[in-house]
Specification:
- The chain is α/β, with parallel strands linked by helices.
- The protein has 2 domains: 2-177, 3-Layer(aba) Sandwich (Rossmann fold), CATH 3.40.50.880; 194-310, Arc Repressor Mutant, subunit A (Orthogonal Bundle), CATH 1.10.10.60.
- The protein is 48% helix and 14% strand.
- It has 13 helices and 10 strands.
- The protein has helices at 14-24, 77-88, 99-105, 121-127, 152-166, 168-177, 205-213, 221-228, 232-243, 247-265, 270-277, 282-293, 297-322, and strands at residues 2-9, 30-36, 40-42, 50-52, 64-69, 92-96, 113-114, 132-133, 139-142, 145-148.
- The strands form 3 sheets. Strands 2-1-5-6-10-9 form a 6-stranded mixed β-sheet, sandwiched between helices.
- A hairpin with a 2-residue loop joins β9 and β10.
Length: 324
């Protein structure tokens, strides 16, 4: 089992506490423990109190440790010591939203790029000048330490961690079970200019859905604009306003994601994977995949076909035990 320890540091949002449970419990081979410095009733911001029964000893042996909460306030010294010990022991360290302040207080973000909720990014940068704060990003990885912005971006980071462990197909399954979109790229902007379309139905969501169905085609800006019934200039402006990415950046992300799923779930030759994902050639597939995950297509397939098989077998075993 991959043990995930979520360390709760009040004040905390109950929604943030639920995110690791919602995402990781949808994937076989994860065990999630929620712990805090002082077990018992933990107050939340704007919601009902929660009860956390495990103390910090639940972090012992954890493969991934996630700091949740704090609201930017000072964390207990024992939490900071436990985080330093976990990091020194080789655990993967992450934070959700204002949990970045906890990691910074522990000295784990010194010299690292990091992010937090955009409304508190300036405060993080001012209090911890040794941290390279990236205020506009959904999540950031630097030196094996992961930080995320607030709310939905925390879901993106947890799904990203699943994808690192088990691949894109398993992460997308976890996303579907949680009824959320597939993980957004960490470099996407967390603050979108116009997240909701106006009443005239001008959202580009139908065009993005159409593009996902035709990734194997050499889609151009003109093709997307034609489908949306607008000019290329307007398409580009509205696309960035709704997604934080240019249309071509968004397409490239989706194509690499499609290639990853094909590598994990099929035995197609590399040139066919490249063709069906719209990346054109095996050389282009190799370039973009290596740039995104640091693996060649052959190495990626060997790694994630194995772990995906383990995940599927684990799910089947759980289903048989539960009588499903």
């Amino acid at each position: 089992m991959h043990l995930v320890a979520a360390v709760i540091v009040p004040p905390v949002l109950s929604f943030d506490v639920s995110i690791p449970l919602m995402v990781f419990n949808n994937v076989p081979h994860y065990e999630v423990r929620v712990c805090t410095a002082r077990p018992g009733t933990v107050p939340t911001v704007g919601g009902p109190d929660i009860v956390v029964t495990d103390g910090l000893d639940a972090m012992e042996g954890a493969d991934t440790v996630i700091a949740v909460g704090s609201g930017g306030e000072q964390a207990p010294a024992e939490v900071l010591d436990a985080l330093r010990k976990a990091a020194a022991g080789g655990a993967r360290i992450a934070s959700l939203c204002t949990g970045a302040f906890v990691l910074a207080q522990a000295g784990l973000l010194d010299g690292c790029r990091a992010t937090t909720h955009w409304g508190l990014a300036d405060d993080l940068a001012a209090r911890f000048p040794s941290v390279d704060v990236q205020p506009g990003l959904l999540f950031v990885e630097d030196g094996g330490i992961f930080t995320s912005a607030g709310a939905a971006a925390a879901i993106d980071l947890c799904l990203h961690l699943v994808r690192l462990d088990y691949g894109a197909a398993v992460a997308n399954t976890a996303a579907r079970l949680a009824v959320v979109p597939p993980v957004r790229p960490g470099g996407q902007a967390q603050f979108i200019e116009t997240p909701l379309p106006d009443d005239r139905g001008t959202s580009l969501a139908p065009t993005r859905a159409w593009a996902l169905e035709h990734l194997d085609r050499p889609l151009t800006l003109a093709d997307l604009a034609r489908h949306a019934g607008t000019s290329v200039r307007t398409l580009t402006r509205r696309f960035h306003a709704e997604t934080g990415l240019s249309p071509l950046q968004w397409l490239l992300h989706r194509r690499v994601d499609r290639a990853r799923e094909l590598l994990e779930t099929t035995e197609l030759p590399m040139d066919q994977v490249a063709e069906q994902s719209g990346l054109g050639s095996a050389d282009s597939l190799r370039k973009h995949l290596a740039g995104r995950v640091g693996l060649t297509p052959t190495a990626y397939r060997a790694s994630f076909t194995r772990v995906r098989g383990q995940a599927v077998r684990g799910a089947a075993m759980r289903g048989r035990r539960s009588g499903d």
